[in-house]
Amino acid sequence: MIAQINNAIRHNIFEKLVSIVAAAVLWVVVMEDQNPVIESSYTVPLTFVNASENYKVLHGSQQIKIRLRGPRSYFVNYEAKDCRAYLNLAGLEEGDHEVKIEAAFPPGFELISVTPEQTQIKLDPYIERQMPADLIVTGAAGANATVTKVEQSAETVTLIGSRTAVDAVTRVIGYVGLSGNKEDFSLQVPMTPINEDGRAVPDVRSVPSLMNVDVTIELDLIRKTVPIEADVVAAEGFDIERVTIDPAQLEIAGKETVINPTDNIRTETITVPLGDKSVKQTVGLIIPEGVTANIKEATVEVVMKEKKQ
Questions:
Q1: Please, which residues bridge with residue 246 across strands?
Q2: Kind of pairing, strands 171-177 and 118-138?
Q3: 186: which residues sit within 8 A by CB, 6+ positions away?
């Protein structure tokens, strides 16, 4: 029996080997025809590995193109989510860096290119900074009602964010709406970090984010509009040519005995540095005791001229 099997195998062995090779070649040809090797691309977001929690990563490249080569069936079976473009940030410290973009993809593919090949990033450290918390009163109290005091639970807030974002903050403000109130009231006011254009700065957190505010209202106080006068000290050798104040006037309120003798409200002292021919500052107003005013500061612009010899 075994001899018969051996004879069958050995019979026409050359022809059989040729047939096997031909079948293999035909299979390869058919597979290459049905499942050819092609090139295609996936577009994926840029991610990061080994990023420090102490830094915010600032970068321009958002979408990365990964070009791969492989059997057509692979591109059918895999999607962009199966690939990844990333930056390895291990060992990088604060500042600007140019980093090569690396790619990860399923086995069986061959990497052709990554576009772009590298990108500029900035590692921006997270910081904390204290700033004054400014409240802005909006609207009007009820008839014959005047706001005499606005008390907040904290004079400052702590800003938390990346250095670039925090440095862009010029004020932290909250709005207290009066809405026709005639009695004392309390509320929580959201505090918003804003830039010099008056726009909210994203990615900066205020602590506390809500300010507790108590508003005191009195009825039947006398109201009066008075001018604001700037207290300016000129540098030696210069005279004051022009002073512009914004606002120029201020509405005050209080008891008759306090309001009647009050003819103006003065600013804090502005000292013009030697050599400066103009200066523009926002300064506080000196509000007498017993007097209520709806603003606490004014912007003063001073133009100087040299004294004639």
A1: 299
A2: parallel
A3: 212, 213, 214, 215
Q: Report d(CA 59, CA 45) in Å as an integer.
A: 12
φ and ψ of 98, to 5 deg:
-110, 120
pLDDT tens digits along 29-88: 444 457 899 999 999 999 999 999 999 999 876 899 999 999 999 999 999 999 999 999
Instruction: Count CB atoms within 10 A of the CB of residue 296.
Output: 12
Beta strands in 139-276 (DSSP E): 145-152, 156-162, 171-177, 185-190, 192-194, 205-207, 210-219, 222-233, 238-246, 249-254, 265-271
Q: What is the Cα–Cα distance from 177 to 288, expressed in whole angstroms?
A: 25
Cα–Cα distances in angstroms (integers) from residue 122 to residues 55, 60, 92, 118, 248, in the given order: 9, 10, 10, 13, 46
Distances (CA, A) of 39 to 115, 163, 189, 265, 278: 15, 43, 58, 77, 67
Residue indicated by tokens 């602590």: 207
How far is residue 268's CA from residue 273's CA, in Å, rounded to a whole number? 16
Where b means 16+ CB within 10 Å and e means fewer, 122-142 reads: bbbeeeeeebebbbebeeebe
**Residue 80 DSSP one-character state:** G
| 299, 233 Cβ separation under 8 angstroms | no
Model pTM score: 0.66
Closest CA to 288 of 309, 259, 247: 259
- Tell me the three state secondary structure of residue 8: helix
Select from 218, 222, 219 the least CA-distant residue to 260: 222
SS3 164: helix
What digits encode the pLDDT tens for the residues 178-197? 989 999 999 999 999 999 99
